Amino acid sequence: MTTTNFDHLGSTDTETLVAVYERRLRRAEMARAEAELLLERHSRVLARSNRELTQRESDLVARLEQGNRHLLHAQQTAAIASFHMDRGALPFVSSQFFKLIGFEAKGAFDPEILLRLIHPLDRSRIAAASQAFFASAQPGQDYRYEHRLERGEDGLRWLRWHIRIMRDAGGHFQSVFGTLQDITEARTTDRRARALQLIADRRTAQLMRLTDDLLRAKAEADAAHGAHSRFLAMTSHDIRTPLNGLLGMIEMLSASELPPMQRRMVDMMRDAGDQLRLLVGDIIDIADMGAGELQLTPEPTRLANLFDPLAALWQLRHPGHVLRWQVDPTLPELLLLDGRRVRQMLEGLLGDCEAGLVELAATRMGDMMRISLTAETLRDDSETGQGRVIARRIANAMGGSVADGTMPAINVPVVAAPDMAIPVPQLAEPVPLRVAGRVPHVLIAEDVETNRIVLGSLLERMGCSHAFAVDGAVAVAAVTGGEFDAVLMDVMMPNMDGAEATQRIRAMAGPKAQIPIIGVTAHGLQAERDALLAKGMNVCLTKPVDTAQLREALVSLWARSGDTRVQDSPLDEVVFTAAFTALPPQRRQGLLDQALGDCRAQAQALVAAHGKQDVTARRRAAHSLKGVAGHFGGSAILVALAALTDESDPAPVVDAVNRVEQAANSLFAEARLHLAA
Predict the structure, then answer these.
(1) CA angle 646, 560, 543 (to 5 degrees)
(2) Residue 549 maps to a domain
(3) Residue 628 in domain
(4) Which of 208, 279, 368, 661 lies at a 20 to 30 A Cα distance from 319?
(5) Listed residues 379, 396, 413: the one ending a domain
(6) Which CATH number covers residue 121?
(7) Same domain, 586 and 643
(8) Given a cut of 50, is residue 291 above it in pLDDT?
(9) Whole-number Å distance between alpha carbons of 570 and 663
(10) CA-CA distance, 664 to 608, in Å (whole number)?
């Protein structure tokens, strides 16, 4: 140890040297303190890092355990297990693996045990597949194997292996891993699905064969229906054409001067003809299987006026036999019903009576009227004959029924007609039609002379002049070279039929192409009439032509043309005067008030039905308004109603309703002026 001698130093130098050493000592102590502080700080960081690593390790272990549990639960749920085996080591398998193969784990798993558990029929196949897999399986590819396995009490099970192999750089086996799954239920479901598919395929084939059979049957049915429709059309034409001439001639005879006895006979002929016309139409409708809703025209009717001519006509047909009738006195004197339809029902039922005494009795049964028929002899097939078929159809339309039994009876609702609602007397001559103040000129295209005479007579009674064309070609030439206000076009004519003639007229240039064309057809089928309308006809009337329908068609078409085609007055003075002069003076005001009230009510109903877009209610209101206005000469209402259609666009309907209301108001004012005068 070296000893420093400070004796040679003075006191001042000694103090300086001590101060230096003291400073060095302080710096050394400060450095040591800083080192200790830094060491302590690093120790704390190291301890914290150690704790974090320990916690992270614990978290990872927990997450790994949780993942393993989830994996095991998922494997249990899906009946699937996993396995892994490295070269030279025993296989590692999940706990679900032993459950799937039905083996209780005791120590390490020996693959030879699994081979013994495989079903004998699959054992050799799986052993060969295992050898091939380890020898030639490509790394990175999945291989799938399925086999059966006997699993104790669970019986036969199906297992599926998904295996992948890993090889080293030299291509030697390094490890194998994959999954094992119980597919017993899936195979059962698949087998069931395949069985159902086979059944479905057989059913589909059967349905295809059935569809082919149905298509062939439909084609045959369509052909039969076409033949049926053609037969009905020809039958309708063959019946209606002579019927049109017959009824037209009867109408002409009725308009002539006749002795009382002959007048009665002609009236009976006309009534019988009207009933025949109704009957033919109904038979055609029923035969066509397309009968729509019957058009009923309820009018105030006295049963005596219904039964008396019916009895007289029946007795003329059955000389020496008697038809008696009686009416329950509790029934109203005037009933609101369609008398022609009731008579049609009775004539159909009377047609089943062969001889002897026949009795008709009308009795009241609450709100219904029963008309019962009693006869000494009825036809054997009376209960299923055409008469009862038609009677049931009419009765159902009226809200009634036909009672079955040996002796038939008709039940219809009792609706009392208003006391003032007395039928208006028919005029001997209708009010002449006018076109812009002149006589209308109408072309009649008809090949049958009788029908030409009948149609010409009808037009003459309406105040129209006419010319004839014997076929469609002559009609086209006449329209081309002449001036006509309308054409009555027969449908079936030689050389050129009415449909082709109509199309040629519509193809003309100028206003002639717009001439009103009224088709006259013996076809009773609605489809036939629709086809004619589609070819250019404005209206299609069915033979025998009804005078009122023809007049209404002409008035309607001329009103739609835009010209002043009918008289400007909203009231037909001739009809109005005839209606009221036939009444006692003290009853005229009451009848007028009731008629005007009915017109207002029906006009309001028409507007309400339009607002609700109720086509059925609109037709009903228009029909009722037409009946009331026609009785009292409300020509403006009839013209406005003729313009109404069932078009989907509401604008024309609204306009028509407004014109009906205006016409009704005009009728009311004009009617009161006439009544006051």
Answers:
(1) 70
(2) no
(3) yes
(4) 279
(5) 413
(6) 3.30.450.20
(7) yes
(8) no
(9) 6
(10) 16
Looking up tokens 């272990």, which residue turns up? Answer: 61
Q: How many domains does the chain have?
A: 4
* Structural domain contains residue 267: no
CA distance 667 to 661: 10
Q: DSSP for 595-621, please give it.
A: HHHHHHHHHHHHHHHHHHT-HHHHHHH
How confident is the model over 236-286, as pLDDT tens digits? Answer: 666 766 776 677 677 777 767 778 777 777 777 777 777 676 667 666 655
Nearest-CA neighbor of 608 among 661, 539, 550, 554?
Answer: 661
Q: Distances in Å between the alpha carbon of 51 and those of 55, 57, 198, 492, 568?
A: 6, 10, 68, 113, 114
Between CA 230 and CA 501 the distance in angstroms is 21
Residue 653 pLDDT class (50, 70, 90 cuts): very low
Q: Which of 382, 413, 444 marks a domain boundary?
A: 413
* Pairing label, strands 80-86, 92-93: antiparallel
> What torsion, rounded to 10 degrees, do the Cα atoms 61, 63, 65, 67 define?
-150
Distance CA 494, CA 473 (A): 9
In this structure, what CATH number is given to the domain that contains residue 371? 3.30.565.10
Query: Residue 535 to residues 152, 335, 499: CA-CA distances in angstroms?
Result: 86, 43, 6
Q: Which helix (H) or strand (E) holds 362?
A: strand 358-365
At 345 the pLDDT is 83
> Cα–Cα–Cα angle for 611, 613, 618, nearest 5°?
90
Task: Say if residues 637 and 625 touch (Cβ distance below 8 Å).
Answer: yes
Rounded Cα–Cα distance for residues 95 and 89 (Å): 18
